[in-house]
């Protein structure tokens, strides 16, 4: 099923003005780099005094990271790139993966580093619980298409059987159980076996992309004209250019002492929401009013603790009758902000409180009496501490030509899978254009280093281009569960 969609966004940064051509290295320039070899220790080290005593390293607090960010010296590479340039991509979500794919189309090889223990994808997460065979899309729920460039990619996924149109009923669930279906247009797409398998399959047919996971790049070091990446002291390779395709506190910490103050400053301007996800499996279908729930997905209105709910068993497996009913529930951003804790170590009491509060919100949304909702036989909460961007510079990518480093991600254009893909395409083509140039005037390739941010309008779980009714902020929730 081909998608016939006219482009609504055009930018010279998304695709080169000329037809893409394989990479052809230029004649080598004189080699040089402002980064110097580390100094050798003094033969007779000076005894620490109050003036020269070694200071403790900066912590990971926001204030410490800001101090490091704005005091670091800018890296300026003057060496020529290698005849066979290699790009390091930190982050294996949609933006990073599409960036790698697009670089290969331009004849540039890359290595993708991702922290995922179970697979690639970032927010394209799917969880399978054995032996019950429970399945949950616990991050991105679906996506829409409004740009012709993204449509071409989705057409390919359709041909490969990786995605399909979500034909189930999706709509708005108002307080008390009133469901209003959304129009069938624009089409809504989902991964055939969940979102994560889609991410894992994106690079299955590539020949110039290497993937390293799980890997947590902890340091970027410029030396002798290339970027040296390492993971807790373990070398992870040398690269002619680097791409930061993730965000949040980990990206800020990585950039704080990288020698890229302009990029670090832009990353620090990004603000992210926090969203709780509740994965719950029930023995029987959920009731609604006097009947049973027949919808597969719903944007919940008027409930503080729940903004979205979806039946994964029907959506992904087509299961209507017997068997477990696996539901994904998302909180509102306001609820997530108020109840945020360190996501790496959620206290048991907090997890139980959030689960109870969200299930109570489900009851209210469905119009059920208090404590009448059946108890799930499986329930797990997860906090997306850096869930979705709430502000954006409104540009497809950011690139620092002096440091040969760039940023891609959905937040640069909005908060959708389409935005992420377009950003990855844009940065890949821009890097390829830069590498093919003579780099005599690198300033010409600078993008977005001073762009101001503006607020993003959309639903708490993201933007869905073409679904105008969801492109506005939710009203103040009318119901808040007791604390």
What order do the helices and strands come in, and which of them pair?
Elements (H helix, E strand, L loop, with lengths): L61 H10 L14 E5 L3 H12 L3 E5 L12 E4 L4 E4 L10 H12 L3 E3 L4 E5 L3 E4 L7 E3 L3 H7 L7 E4 L6 E5 L2 E6 L2 E6 L1 E4 L4 H7 L5 H9 L5 E8 L4 E2 L2 E2 L4 E4 L7 E4 H6 L7 E6 L2 H6 L9 H19 L11 E7 L6 E2 L5 E3 L4 E3 L9 H20 L17 E2 L28
Parallel strand pairs: 1-2, 1-13, 2-9, 6-17, 13-23
Antiparallel strand pairs: 3-4, 5-8, 6-7, 10-11, 11-12, 14-19, 14-20, 15-16, 17-18, 18-19, 21-24, 22-23
3D architecture notes:
This protein is an alpha+beta fold. The chain has helices at 62-71, 94-105, 148-159, 195-201, 249-255, 261-269, 312-317, 333-338, 348-366, 417-436; strands at 86-90, 109-113, 126-129, 134-137, 163-165, 170-174, 178-181, 189-191, 209-212, 219-223, 226-231, 234-239, 241-244, 275-282, 287-288, 291-292, 297-300, 308-311, 325-330, 378-384, 391-392, 398-400, 405-407, 454-455. It starts with 61 loop residues before the first helix and ends in a 28-residue tail after the last strand. Residues 4-21, 23-69 and 471-478 have low confidence and may be disordered.
Helix content range: 10-25%
What is Rg? 24 Å
Give the count of helical stretches: 10
User: What percent of residues are in strands?
Assistant: 15-25%
Overall average residue pLDDT: 84
What is the makeup of the main sheet? 7 strands, mixed
Strand element count:
24
Please state the structural category: alpha+beta
Q: N-to-C terminal Cα separation, in Å?
A: 49 Å
Shape: elongated
Strand order of the largest sheet: 7-6-17-18-19-14-20
Q: From the structure provided, what is the oligomeric state, counting identical versus distinct chains? A: single chain
Task: Identify low-pLDDT runs.
Answer: 4-21, 23-69, 471-478
